Amino acid sequence: MTQDFYHNFYAVRIKEVRRTMVINPPYYEAIDLFTGREIPKNPVDFRYYMGGTKLDDCLSSPIGGWLWSDRLVMALNDAGITGFNLYPVVLKDKQKEDVEGYSGVSIVGRAGKVDFKKSEVIKEQPEGWPKVIERLKGMYFGLEEWDGSDIFLAEGSLYVFCTKKFVDAVSKLKGHNFEFTPVSEYRLSKSFLDSQLEKEAKEKGEVD
């Protein structure tokens, strides 16, 4: 079965906590910084965007961009985690005061594209939903193209994946704000799959 080959991998998300500070990176550079396409020569400015004032181990942005705390970076380095680079930042809080102890993160590990055709279509009623809907179960990246990094992006996307080694290193930190879901258990909407398949078909010239 497909999931047997992926038992050591997890999809990575950042918990959405209302009291946590959400950051605002430079708009035109956000994706290039996050994916490692741009290597800053000088500290990059990040500022408060929304949310509360709580400073978690990973501060995130809705347009792309992560900042990691010094204690998180130390834990990952101690565990020998690979797949990321750091760059210096200047972070301002809601009162426009400097916040120390954070670095910008570029995810430089890579794997092959997510193949949504490997996902299983299931019917279930999510908590809080009024009816049963179709969803995808499983999100499988190109394993043959994986470069061996502990945290990485699937080719052509911002989907972040990691190994159990990364999960174990982060889980030692009390109060961290990461969410880890085994790739075989990850859920997406069926309509999302349909839109992705249509996009891929257009790219291949199979539809007008």
List the helices and strands and how they pair.
Elements: E1 9-14, E2 21-24, H1 30-35, E3 44-51, E4 58-60, E5 66-69, H2 70-78, E6 84-87, E7 89-92, E8 98-99, E9 102-107, E10 109-111, E11 120-124, E12 133-137, E13 151-154, E14 160-163, H3 164-171, E15 178-182, E16 187-189, H4 190-203
Descriptive notes:
With 208 residues, the protein is an alpha+beta fold. It folds into two domains: 2-8 and 111-172 and 185-203, no CATH class; 12-109, no CATH class. The chain has four helices and 16 strands. It has helices spanning 30-35, 70-78, 164-171, 190-203; strands at residues 9-14, 21-24, 44-51, 58-60, 66-69, 84-87, 89-92, 98-99, 102-107, 109-111, 120-124, 133-137, 151-154, 160-163, 178-182, 187-189. The chain has a five-stranded mixed sheet with strand order 10-13-14-1-15. A four-stranded mixed sheet has the order 2-3-7-8, with no helix packed on it. A four-stranded antiparallel sheet has the order 4-5-9-6. A hairpin with a 5-residue loop joins strand 13 and strand 14 (160-163).
